[in-house]
Design a protein that fits this description.
alpha+beta; Jelly Rolls; 2 domains; 5-stranded antiparallel sheet; 7 helices; elongated; F-box_only; F-box-assoc_dom; Galactose-bd-like_sf
Length: 295
């Protein structure tokens, strides 16, 4: 199939790219020590205010930064949000500015960005490029292979996509143009982009599976559009082809001003049999990682 991603998908980018390079965050206010810490003439140490505020839902906290300058300083501090991260996540917090933890805890931007990766909603969110043979289908549960593994990707859905005797391919575009804070963060810290999917074949027929991903940026000052891409091919020909295996791509170097991630997979059988004997795929993941060791 070659470099099917670049051959089959238009790379037209956003007409009006909105740069986030000029984002700025306010410095802490200069305030007297006691202001904002007295309640009914009783002084409350800042550490106690930290503790009280930590019981609030993360997404509600920013509006309380308007109470006074002291509260604003506390709520928009790196140490406060690092503690909030520890309270609300099992991951290593690392050392980042407060807005990184805020984005992580109050949005789904660091979750799996790929939708309907198992076909539970049929082909919703997907665009089919090639539908050869008897067309791409959905199996629930998978037929002719081992059951889907006991992995987080399959906790809710036990279905998979399956291909036929000619190429079947589809793709999904993840557009983050309007996620301005996320774009600023990944432009600044270049968090790894992790892509994966599980694939398997049938016991009675060989098959081949392809995974490709393309990361595209908005236009830079010279009007150019940057991109980074990667592909993997898996030939399911051995006796263990019935076992589900994870295929992974990791991007640590990609252009500035990332605005779109294109995920595409493809498959077919190796013996040109009528029906659905081609590669199966399920559990696709596209996500940003705070730390490479999360993989």
């Amino acid at each position: 199939m070659g470099n099917f991603l670049e051959n089959n998908i238009s790379t037209n980018m956003v007409d009006k790219f909105d740069s986030v390079r000029d984002f700025k965050f306010m410095d802490a206010f200069s305030v007297q020590e006691a202001i904002g810490l007295c309640f009914n003439d009783i002084y409350i140490p800042e550490e106690i205010l930290f503790k009280i505020l930590s019981f609030l839902e993360p997404k509600l906290l920013l509006k309380y930064s308007q109470v006074c300058k002291k509260w604003c300083n506390v709520i928009k501090s790196d140490i406060f949000w690092k503690d909030m991260f520890r309270l609300n996540s099992d991951e290593n917090p690392g050392n980042f500015p407060w807005y990184v933890y805020y984005c992580y805890l109050t949005t789904k931007n660091f979750n799996n960005l790929l939708k309907n990766g198992n076909g539970a909603k049929e082909f919703k969110h997907w665009k089919i490029k090639h539908n050869g043979g008897d067309k791409i289908d959905i199996e629930k549960p998978p037929i002719g292979s081992k059951p889907l593994p006991d992995e987080p990707e399959f906790v809710k859905d036990k279905s998979c996509f399956v291909t036929s005797y000619q190429k079947g391919s589809k793709y999904q575009e993840i557009d983050i143009t309007n996620k301005r804070l996320l774009r600023f963060i990944i432009n600044k810290f270049k968090f790894p982009v992790y892509v994966s999917e599980w694939t398997a074949g049938r016991f009675d027929c060989s098959s081949v599976y392809y995974l490709a991903t393309r990361l595209e940026s908005g236009e830079d000052e010279s009007g150019l559009v940057g991109h980074e891409s990667g592909t993997k091919e898996v030939r399911l020909i051995d006796i263990d082809r019935v076992e589900w295996r994870k295929v992974e791509l990791i991007f640590t170097k990609y252009p500035d001003n990332l605005v779109k991630i294109i995920f595409q997979h493809a498959g077919r059988d190796g013996q040109f049999w009528s029906g659905h004997y081609g590669a199966k795929m399920s559990g696709g993941v596209v996500k940003f990682l705070l730390h490479p060791k999360e993989i």
